[in-house]
Amino acid sequence: MAKVRAMRTLENALRRFGFQRIAGVDEVGRGCLAGPVMAAAVVLDPDRYIPGIHDSKMVTALERERLYTVITRKALAWSVASAQPEEIDVMNIHRASLEAMRRAVMALAPLPDLVLVDAFRIPELFMAQRGVLHGDRRCTAIAAASIIAKVTRDREMLAYHAADPRYGYDRHKGYATADHLAAVAQHGYSPLHRRSFRPPSLFDTMDE
Q: Would you list the DSSP string of 143-160?
C-alpha cells in the first residue's frame, strides 16, 4: 500500500463552517487475540502544523515514537482510553472499540465541538460527529489519533511482555501470529487473552 500523507483539507473546510475544536478519533487492537483495544482522541492546533503525519500502519515504530512526542507536545488536547479483554468478551469487539473511542473523546478537556471518526459513528456521543471512510489515511487529526493509540498500546504490550515473556508480546503485540498461536497452544490462555477470540485450530488445545 502506498504511503500517502494525511491531509488537513477536511478539518480546514469544517472550520470554515464554524467548528473550532475538531477531534480526530481512532482505535487499534481490534484484531488481536490478547490485550486491550486502545483508542485515542486528538485535537490538533491549526496554527502548529506537524509534518509527516500518516496512518500509524504506514510508518515505522521509530517514526511513530517521534511523531507521538511531537503530537502530544503540539496538540491542543489529546487523550487515550481502552476496553480491556474482559469487556471485549462481554460486549464483543465492535461495541468495545466504540466504547473505547467514546471514553477517549469524553476525556478531552474541554470537549470538542466536532468529532471525526475513522469509518464509524460513536453511539451515545452527544456532540456533532462524522464518520470518515479511510479516515486514518485521509484526515490528519484521525491519523494523529491512530499514532497515539498505536504507540500507547505497543508500550502497554511491552510492559505485559516484561511481566510474562512466554507469549512474545514484544514481537507481535497480541496479534495472531504463528509464534503467538504456538505459545497459546503450549501455555494456554493468560488473563490478558480475549476468551471470545478462539482460533478454530486451537479449540482442543487452549485452556478455558
A: HHHHHHHHHHHHHHHHHH
pTM of the model: 0.91
- What pLDDT shows up at residue 206? 44
Identify residue 158 by its one-letter amino acid code. Answer: L
* Arch. (CATH architecture) of 9-153: 2-Layer Sandwich (3.30)
Whether residue 8 contacts residue 45, with contact meaning beta carbons closer than 8 Å, is answered with no
Cis-peptide, bond into residue 46, ω within 30° of zero? no
- Can you list the residues of the chain whose pLDDT is less than 70? 1-5, 199-208
Rg (CA), the chain: 18
pLDDT tens, residue by residue, 72-96 = 999 999 999 999 999 999 999 999 9
Domain ranges in the chain are 9-153
> Omega before 200 cis (within 30°)?
no
